Amino acid sequence: MGFRDLLSGVPRDNKPVSLILEMRDRTNTLGGNPVVFDDIAEAPGHSAALNVLIRDRLCEVFDVSPGELIDILAWGMANPTEPLMVHASEAEVLENQQKPVNLHALPIPWHYAEDRGRYQSASVIIAEYDGIRNMSYHRQLLRDANHTVARFVPRHLRMMYETAKANGDEINIAVVNGADATVLLAAAMSFDENLDELSVAAALHERLHGEPLRLVRLTNGVAVPADAEYAMEARITLDVDEEGPYVDITGTVDEVRNEPVIEYDSIFHRNDPVFHALISAGVEHRTLMGTPRAPTIKAAVSEVVPCTDVYLTEGGCGWLSSVVQIKPQNDGDGIRAIHAAFNGHRSMKQVIVVDDDIDITDPTRVEWALMTRWQPDTDTVILSGQKGSSLDPSRSEDGTTSKIGMDATLSLGVVRGPYESVL
């Protein structure tokens, strides 16, 4: 089990490739398909995987349908489980230790010329402080051989950091790259309360793999997935430095800020390690942003009408727009579903609601539903003065935005047309 499940059957590219502005271009020539690069000029002995964490591949690895995956993610959120702690001798991630620490020797890529430099964007930070454990994604700019500068968005880790800083404390952390897909999905979840994401990952792991999620403690006391590709001991220091610019999920360039500096103390990795070199604004980034949001949207919509599937669209960057599939029971269910969907994911600015005969992943089918089932003056919800997403570059200076919802469901009793034969 582990990250290598996602790599099964993925083509290996043995041609030399550079980390500097070449990996992304090479994947584009390969059609954006999954690939593992094995001959990396700046990181001999290490491989790098790109475009492997996508919705279809997750469903294939887990042997579930997209709708089932959403339901299982929701179940995991509601049923956290304690992981299984194992001895260091049983942990694949501890098979090798890099000496001395040298982040430059890892396959940390520089994907866009607009970026400040090399970034690890698929690595998760596991932090433990004052009895609370948090696991989440935070992009890290490679500053030098043993330091990165991390962008901490205003969520739980940021609050933990501010508390520690006020107390004059550093925070022991682990930086994990190439973990099992259940861990990667759990790390992308966000909760109003301080729910331990590793316990959600453990529930998902046991449900989808049929065995416990194994953790091992590093020497700094932080527990990490035992079968991850990389586990790095580090500390969030009290120092700050400039981070950014960076091409973010929307494909727009994020600004420069002063952000916390992370100092690395030890780096462990498996034999023949494969680094997850996610491309920001790419398909994996959208998967990690959108897939964990689908369960919360589906749960909210299901309270007002049966909801069968939710898809965070590619054009909406896996975050700002969704298509919601329902089975209307009463007149007005489509409009009710729109309001519920916005409550289920407050960062969205567009929702399209369709019947269960529409493939919500196919933009042609969705547009067809709009053009044949939607009337703009009666089937549209427009909300003004709403809290906008920080990822939306078009939001107002005060952080607000407007939102739109479109009900593209058939009126009850209307016979569906044979569109499959004509489109």
UniProtKB/TrEMBL annotation:
<dbReference type="GO" id="GO:0005737">
    <property type="term" value="C:cytoplasm"/>
</dbReference>
<feature type="compositionally biased region" description="Polar residues">
    <location>
        <begin position="383"/>
        <end position="393"/>
    </location>
</feature>
<feature type="region of interest" description="Disordered">
    <location>
        <begin position="383"/>
        <end position="403"/>
    </location>
</feature>
<dbReference type="InterPro" id="IPR002830">
    <property type="entry name" value="UbiD"/>
</dbReference>
<comment type="pathway">
    <text>Isoprenoid biosynthesis; isopentenyl diphosphate biosynthesis via mevalonate pathway.</text>
</comment>
<dbReference type="InterPro" id="IPR049381">
    <property type="entry name" value="UbiD-like_C"/>
</dbReference>
<comment type="function">
    <text>Catalyzes the conversion of trans-anhydromevalonate 5-phosphate (tAHMP) into isopentenyl phosphate. Involved in the archaeal mevalonate (MVA) pathway, which provides fundamental precursors for isoprenoid biosynthesis, such as isopentenyl diphosphate (IPP) and dimethylallyl diphosphate (DMAPP).</text>
</comment>
<feature type="domain" description="3-octaprenyl-4-hydroxybenzoate carboxy-lyase-like C-terminal">
    <location>
        <begin position="287"/>
        <end position="408"/>
    </location>
</feature>
<dbReference type="Pfam" id="PF20696">
    <property type="entry name" value="UbiD_C"/>
</dbReference>
<dbReference type="GO" id="GO:0016831">
    <property type="term" value="F:carboxy-lyase activity"/>
</dbReference>
<comment type="similarity">
    <text>Belongs to the UbiD family.</text>
</comment>
<feature type="domain" description="3-octaprenyl-4-hydroxybenzoate carboxy-lyase-like Rift-related">
    <location>
        <begin position="88"/>
        <end position="280"/>
    </location>
</feature>
<dbReference type="Pfam" id="PF01977">
    <property type="entry name" value="UbiD"/>
</dbReference>
<dbReference type="InterPro" id="IPR048304">
    <property type="entry name" value="UbiD_Rift_dom"/>
</dbReference>
<protein>
    <recommendedName>
        <fullName>Anhydromevalonate phosphate decarboxylase</fullName>
        <ecNumber>4.1.1.126</ecNumber>
    </recommendedName>
</protein>
